[in-house]
Design goal:
The chain folds into 2 domains: 210 residues, Gcn5-related N-acetyltransferase (GNAT) (Aminopeptidase), CATH 3.40.630.30; 55 residues, no CATH class. Helices cover 42% and strands 22% of the residues. It has 14 helices and 12 strands. The chain has an 8-stranded mixed β-sheet with strand order 1-4-5-6-7-10-12-11. A hairpin with a 4-residue loop joins strand 6 and strand 7. It is globular and about 60 Å long. The two termini are 22 Å apart. 34% of the residues are buried.
Length: 315
């Protein structure tokens, strides 16, 4: 999108903070609630749709058992949209990109212009623990990525949109934090295994901390966030696009379309983020291209040259 559009969205939506709660598989309830806003959902019809896999989630099966198994509605789903073990986050909004073609390559936007960035940040409870270790946010975030300038960012999603067609494209979902914590945890475990003492220091990004303290944090962070960060980020993005922006047509890059249009060279992002994750959220492969990409100078030509290029779409 152009700079003016991005700025207008920020002006309308940016606030001090937005609290966001996530529990494992919350997206399954959320997607069904989006479908049920206008009328109750017939289970027989759902079984024939891309959303059929959601009916196998334990929480959804419990709802079906309570409802008699023929229909479910938004009120029934809402009663189960909570978990005592949910994880708290703070969402913030930013922008990323450039209208200069020469900068589009390293910004990795599919077309010249700007993306909205939805940032999934840790809550204060996590940050208080993290700060007691003597670390700072820069330890696990790369400031050359679209992370929050004021908070510790677990993950982010970049979104391009087009008001004319009512369409959004999820450009990427990524986490520096989990990747770097996993690397540091392996490094510390290796040093302890080699005979070093728990009280010995480890150095990371100019910081010093004992091996034991570092290992304790890495274990906590991976156990608490590694399994849910991608789920939490994608569901927050879908809810934001539909409920805040009011856009219903959502596309998501496939591994091939992302590599081509974002000019990704060298090391590729984790393949599962562009294969397993969208399928898990009931996106379906499609050779239908977001119309606004076809209108973009140079981009439409690249798409037409690549026969059979596919995206994912949430129908």
């Amino acid at each position: 999108m152009d700079r003016q559009t991005a700025d207008e969205v920020l002006e309308c939506l940016v606030g001090e903070r937005t609290l966001y709660h996530y529990y494992r598989d919350r997206y399954s309830i959320g997607l069904l609630r989006h479908l049920s806003r206008r009328q109750a959902l017939r289970i027989a019809a759902l079984k024939q749709s891309p959303y059929a896999q959601l009916l196998q989630k334990p929480r959804v099966r419990n709802i079906l058992a309570d409802s008699g198994g023929k229909e479910i509605d938004d009120m029934q789903l809402a009663r189960h949209d909570y978990d005592a073990d949910q994880t708290d986050f703070v969402l913030t909004l930013g922008t990323w990109g450039s209208e200069l073609k020469r900068e589009t390559c390293w910004k990795q936007t599919s077309r010249p212009g700007y993306n909205l960035v939805l940032q999934l940040n840790f809550c204060r409870r996590h940050d208080r623990l993290f700060q007691r270790l003597g670390y700072t946010g820069d330890s696990f975030n790369y400031r050359g990525h679209p992370v929050s300038e004021r908070r510790n960012t677990l993950a982010w999603a970049r979104i391009d949109l087009d008001w004319q067609t009512g369409t959004a494209l999820i450009e990427e979902i990524q986490s520096d934090w989990i990747r770097r914590v996993a690397w540091l945890g392996e490094r510390v475990a290796g040093r302890l295994k080699s005979g070093q003492q728990p009280a010995d220091e480890t150095r990371y990004c100019g910081l010093k901390c004992s091996l034991q303290t570092t290992q304790e944090y890495c274990r906590f962070a991976l156990e608490r966030y590694a399994a849910i960060w991608a789920e939490a980020m994608l569901w927050a993005t879908i809810a934001f696009v539909r409920e805040e922006l009011g856009l219903q047509r959502i596309y998501y890059h496939s591994e091939e379309s992302g590599r081509l249009l974002k000019n990704i060279r060298g090391k590729l992002p984790p393949r599962s983020l562009y294969t397993d994750l969208p399928r898990k959220f009931c996106f379906v492969p499609t050779q239908e291209t977001p119309e606004f990409l076809l209108r973009a100078s140079g981009v439409g030509k690249a798409i037409r040259r690549r026969e059979g290029l596919s995206f994912f779409q949430l129908t």
